[in-house]
Design a protein that fits this description.
Belongs to the auxin efflux carrier (TC 2.A.69) family. With 300 residues, this protein is mainly alpha-helical. It has 14 helices and no strands. The chain has a single domain, classed as Na+/H+ antiporter like fold, CATH 1.20.1530.20.
């Protein structure tokens, strides 16, 4: 356990630095937005590109995005049933569904990178392809359905197709299949840019962290479904597809990832319950910081 703790503890400490800077009024949520933009448009595309270009493919990797889709669709059935039992109003019910379905794989990247290296990020990005495809289609549709805004669905599809992480993944896959070797200077460049990912993600999450004590039953129910049921489904698919080694670790970690920040984005865009969304994301981050190091140790 000590080896994993040594690797992931610095990642967690960066989160608390972000939270402390927010509490001290040095950084604000606006700064968190800026950090996430740099992460989304610059650092994570570079890291995904470099990792996937250098990755050695195997047949079991093709199952990663498929498993992500199956995890989300199964959780939808569970969340819909549990959300109705909690008698939530429509905006809160929308957040309950969205918050339990979106897997914050970006949260897992720093932990996977610290504990398992860059190849784990390449596999996590393949898993995230299935996750992201549903986030900007099916899950966004749910946010629109239970919200009060009339957003353009095709705009979201367009954003998905033009997202830098997706484009980096597709280009890298093509170059990998063509057996293209990056020049040394390009490899060093993408390494420098990519290693900004960990501080950018954890600082921004610390800035966004804002747990509330109200409505704890629905909040904790959402967190348990996202992380607990997600983990059980990850275990099921690992054994169903007989995944081994790093792929097994990636599926377990990503399936039990905290609720994604797009929960907050969609809640704000579609006029859902923003306070409920912030609590779900915040408490699931706490659980994630405890659970993911444990999973990395168990699968070590």
């Amino acid at each position: 356990m000590g080896d994993i703790i040594e690797k992931v503890l610095p990642v967690i400490l960066v989160f608390f630095i972000g939270y402390s800077l927010k509490r001290a009024d040095i950084l604000s949520k606006k700064d968190g937005d800026t950090l996430l933009k740099v992460f989304f448009y610059v650092s994570v595309p570079a890291l995904i590109f470099l990792s996937v270009v250098q990755m050695k493919f195997s047949l079991q990797l093709l199952w990663l995005p498929v498993i992500a889709v199956m995890v989300i669709l199964t959780i939808y059935v569970v969340s819909h049933f549990c959300g109705r039992l909690l008698h939530l109003d429509q905006p809160s019910f929308g957040v309950f569904l969205v918050g339990t379905l979106i897997m914050n794989t970006s949260f897992t990247y720093p932990f996977l990178m610290a504990a398992k290296g860059e190849e784990s990020l390449a596999q996590a990005s393949l898993f995230d392809f299935g996750n992201t495809a549903l986030v900007f289609t099916f899950i966004y549709y749910l946010a629109c359905k239970y919200g009060s805004n009339s957003s353009n669905f095709m705009v979201m599809i367009s954003k998905f197709m033009r997202s830098p992480p997706l484009l980096a993944l597709l280009v890298a896959l093509f170059l990998n299949l063509m057996h293209f070797t990056l020049p040394t200077i390009a490899t060093r460049f993408f390494n420098i840019i990519g290693y900004m990912t960990m501080p950018l993600v954890m600082l921004s999450l610390g800035i966004y962290f804002s747990p509330k004590t109200a409505r704890m039953l629905p909040v904790l129910s959402a967190v348990c479904i996202r992380t607990g049921i997600g983990l059980l489904l990850g275990l099921f698919f690992v054994y169903l597809f007989d995944l081994k080694g790093l792929s097994r670790t990636v599926v377990l970690v990503c399936s039990s990832a905290p609720s994604g920040l797009n929960t907050l984005v969609f809640s704000s865009m579609e006029k859902l319950d923003n306070e409920f969304a912030a609590s779900v994301v915040s408490y699931s981050v706490i659980v994630g910081m405890l659970l993911i190091p444990l999973l990395l140790q168990v699968t070590h």
